[in-house]
Amino acid sequence: METVKGSLDYNTQLPHLILPEYGRNIHRMVEYCMTLEDRSERNRCAHAIILVMGQLNPHLRDVADFVHKLWDHLFIISKFKLDVDSPYPLPSSETFETKPDRVPYPKGNIKYKHYGKIMAEIIEKAVEFEEGPEKEDLKRTIANHLKKSHINWAKDAVPDEVILGHLSELSKGKLKIDDPSVLTSNADLMKKNNMTLNQAPVQQNNQHKNKHKKNFKFNKNKYKH
């Protein structure tokens, strides 16, 4: 029993895996490859390890420069100490230690977040349009979209005056609609939402009924003599 216990190796007692996705055997193969004194043997061993690494990660074969990535991983596992002839430029530790540039987070104060930032940008572009029928159509389209978004967010009807006020506020008073009748009614918008929500359950119920009919016919035929 003492011999068996002494032969057990626990992961917590073993060296840290640099790339755990390749497993401990690959790391040991790389360590063995580094011990080979003959350069030609090291090269053959490195190519053999690359083949095994590729088989362990078949999902990476669709990635551009798949083999190049495997060679980079090989050198990373060896801590850049493996001296072999790579078909690609040898990577350095500084290449992977350098942090990428910080991506600036887009800043923008959106007062009515349920309308979204894109709608705010559309309103800014609409302000630049010249006065005319095209701009009037665009204002009506934007106002109706604001109303639809507000109903989806509040789950309730909204007065047309509120929507027109928001349009004027978001455009800094440059887009105004005097006639609220150009907006789609609350009833029509809420009806469309309810139809969208009710379509899936109805279809599911019909499928359940058809399945019931098939089972009934099957059982009925089963007991015929």
Overall description:
With 225 residues, the chain is an all-alpha fold. The protein folds into 2 domains: 9-96, no CATH class; 107-186, no CATH class. It has 9 helices and no strands. Helix 2 packs antiparallel against helix 3 (39-56), helix 3 crosses helix 4 (66-77) and helix 7 packs across helix 8. The longest helix is centred in the C-terminal third of the chain and has 37 residues, at 186-222. The chain is elongated. The termini are far apart. The relative contact order is 0.06. Residues 1-5 and 195-204 have low confidence and may be disordered.
Structural class: mainly alpha
Number of strands: 0
Number of helices: 9
Biggest β-sheet description: none
Task: Indicate the radius of gyration in whole angstroms.
Answer: 34 Å
Number of domains: 2
Q: Kindly, what is the distance between the CA atoms of the first and last residues, rounded to a whole number of angstroms?
A: 69 Å
Helix content: 55-70%
Q: Which spans have pLDDT < 50 for at least 5 consecutive residues?
A: 1-5, 195-204
- The ordered string of helix (H) and strand (E) elements is HHHHHHHHH
Average pLDDT over all residues: 81
Shape: elongated
Q: Which band does the percent of strand residues land in? A: under 5%
